[in-house]
Amino acid sequence: MRKYLVIGNWKMNFGRSESVTFLDEFIPIFKKRSDVEVGIAPPFTSLSICAEKLHGSSILLGAQNCHWVESGAYTGEISAGMLKELGCSFAIVGHSERRQLFGESDEGVNKRAAALLAADLTPVVCVGETLEERESGEAFKVVTRQLELGLAGISPKLISRVVIAYEPVWAIGTGKTASASEAQEVHSHIRKVISRLGGDSISKEVRILYGGSVNDKNAASLLGEKDIDGALVGGASLVAQKFASIAGFRV
Ligand code: 13P
Question: Which of 44, 180, 215, 218, by CA, is between 20 and 30 Å from 166?
């Protein structure tokens, strides 16, 4: 059985002191469900304080990106091993903001995912089409390419440890959510692609999260779909009360 996974992607929000304020509010109101894992992905500079605050809690800590080389002359980059040392158990890779604003490619996503797996961390590989691609009927084609290239050369056994996040670019930060059935359609397609890449039984183990304007009002209906195994939440994950509701699928 796949456990649900709900991750808050804080993006470039919450330095150390705001992170503490958030967690001081969130931890007491967060009610753990045995069928749901919950994680947060703060900015790099807030990871260590969050690791301290989360000590002894079940809330997972992750980063928003990583580099694929272990160490060396890569100014400004952070490796998977460094994240692990800080207490991270996952990292987001290939977020559409990284792809669109920082020129990251499918090949880079692939190297990042492989490096995370090698360091025993979980890659959360983001895929999703733009509005233009959706309107020209290319959503499945784009997502298929991102998965094929993003997971290239990764063994089926390791694919089972990858988390996929389907984030239609047109739904990110816009307040426009894909309807539950629109999202389910793409999630089901993603599971078929994973089955082709890693085999049928592996595809049943892989968690596929939905992201894009998820909030405390729409989470329960999205997460009620057969192939939606959780959520990658941006804006609403910055409000403790809202994120606690989403993590418990409460309206
Ligand atoms: P919003 O929830 O703010 O739309 O952001 C989604 C996202 O990009 C999460 O990674």
Answer: 44
In the predicted model, is pLDDT for residue 251 greater than 80? Answer: no
Per residue in 113-161, pLDDT (tens digit) is 999 999 999 999 999 999 999 999 999 999 999 999 999 999 999 999 9
3-state helix, strand, coil in the chain (%, to 5): 45, 15, 35
Contact residues for 32 (Cβ-Cβ < 8 A; gap 6+): 38, 58
Whose CA is closest to atom 2 on ligand 1? 234
Residue with tokens 């994120």: 243
Can you tell me the distance from the alpha carbon of 249 to that of 251, in angstroms, rounded to the nearest whole number?
A: 7
- Provide the whole-model pTM: 0.97
CA distance 2 to 16: 33
User: How far does the centroid of ligand 1 lie from the alpha carbon of residue 71, in Å?
Assistant: 30
Q: Which domains does the chain have, with CATH numbers?
A: 4-247 (3.20.20.70)
Q: At 14, which helix (H) or strand (E)?
A: none
Report CA-CA distances (Å) from 155 to 44, 53, 107, 172, 185. Answer: 29, 35, 16, 31, 26
